[in-house]
Amino acid sequence: MTSKFSVVPTRETSLVWTVTPSHVRAALIEVDSGKALRMIRRYERPRGEKMVWEFLDNLRHIPVILSLDSALAYTAIVPLAVRLQNDARKDRLEFQGAVREIVNRGNLETRPLAAKALGVEDLDAVLFDARVMNLKMDGVDIAGWPQLAGKKLTGTVHLMFTTRDLFEELHTLRHSRKELFITEDSKAAMAVLAHEGKPPFRMLYADPGRSEFVVLDPHHNPIFRKVPFAWSSPLSMLREEWKVSEPVARAILTDAEHGGLSAAAARLLDKMREQSRESFDRALQKSKFRGPVYLRGTDVLPFRLPYTHEGTEVRPYPFEEIWSTLGFEGVIDPSPENLALLLPHFEYYYHRGDPAHHRALTRQIHWIAT
Predict the structure, then answer these.
(1) Is the dihedral of CA 337, 343, 346, 347 positive or negative?
(2) Beta-ladder partners of 313
(3) Is residue 214 within 8 Å of 203, Cβ to Cβ?
(4) In contact, 103 and 368? CB cutoff 8 Å
(5) Where are the chain's structural domains?
(6) Higher confidence at residue 327 or residue 314?
(7) pLDDT for 117-165, tens place per residue?
(8) Strand 180-184 to 64-68 pairing
(9) Is the CB of residue 160 less than 8 Å from the CB of residue 128?
């Protein structure tokens, strides 16, 4: 499959910034003309500490890609369609009016859903970002702001909400006048998949204490949605029954993999894994999803991937295939921390098209949204 991804023929650097409930992580990502990609100057600190943005002054001309963990953001994707009259002024006004209507309606209709998902009051769910993506003119992909030479302009408007506390925490970065691309971790992972195959796409996040399906289906309303996935992992069961911390539970499961436990303890863990697998199968059946499901996360599974159950095949997130398709050079460890930095970077490159057009369109959408 031929990818639409292309890099400009010079060395480029961008700063990817990820925010999770517990940590803030960042890395400078450098891509040269031969598609050699390097992650340099890593940064990490706990969320409890105040975010420091002063160093951005030393990176004045480097675009910033900000990705929020799915627990901190709620994204609604709304279809956009504008009939054109081949009158530049009227068509531009029609486009602006269509986007403004979607943003205003989203603020009214989507805010309560975002507040519920984020666990805050309605007034504390704040529209953090709005942008048009996947623009097509008469069904053909276009990059950035078009010349409006055609009959129908289509695309999607992405509305991202976050909590008021985090909105204020990120205020300095949001108004730093830098080129800023904002996304949500799960949406970035789906956006990359969408350029490598045909939807619908289903991804399962399996993290300790939080598991959910993320679904991207342009033929469904809503297009992008999250579905709870309730199951008991071996890690959570071991912590609950043996009253141990997560690091200790992980160490016990690792020892079990290498035969480091007594026969009695190994039998108990085997029984626990079987119960965990049964709970996973029940959750799959309840979802009624069929076909491939891509898995991300750091929880411990009671089986090896790929895993099939009644028409559903759980697969690893296909990072190696994506990396190969994009033609990058070098070796990157696809750890959860690295994927959280790389996937937003890939979505940014897919979206931006001509950088000048990208910036002009993004400024216009942000002006409409305010």
Answers:
(1) negative
(2) 292, 308
(3) yes
(4) yes
(5) 12-196+318-369, 228-316
(6) 314
(7) 999 999 999 998 888 877 788 888 776 555 667 788 888 888 999 999 9
(8) parallel
(9) yes
Helix (H, G, I), strand (E, B) or coil at 17: strand
d(CA 60, CA 214): 35
Residues 6 or more apart in contact with residue 109 via CB below 8 angstroms = none
Q: How confident is the model at residue 7 (pLDDT cuts 50, 70, 90)?
A: very low
How far is 357 from 198, CA to CA, in rounded Å?
Answer: 27
**Which ranges of 175-225 does DSSP label H, i.e. alpha helix?**
185-194
Q: What pTM value is reported for the model?
A: 0.84
User: 108, 350 in Cβ contact below 8 A?
Assistant: no
Q: Which of 228, 118, 203 is nearest to 162 (CA)?
A: 118
pLDDT at residue 207 above 80? yes
Biggest CA–CA distance in the chain, Å, is 78
DSSP 3-state of 306: coil
Residue 26 CA to residue 64 CA, distance in Å, equals: 10
Give the orientation angle of helix 246-257 with respect to helix 234-242, to 10 degrees.
110
Tokens 């900000």 map to which residue? 66
The sign of the dihedral angle between the CA atoms of 194, 196, 197, 201 is negative
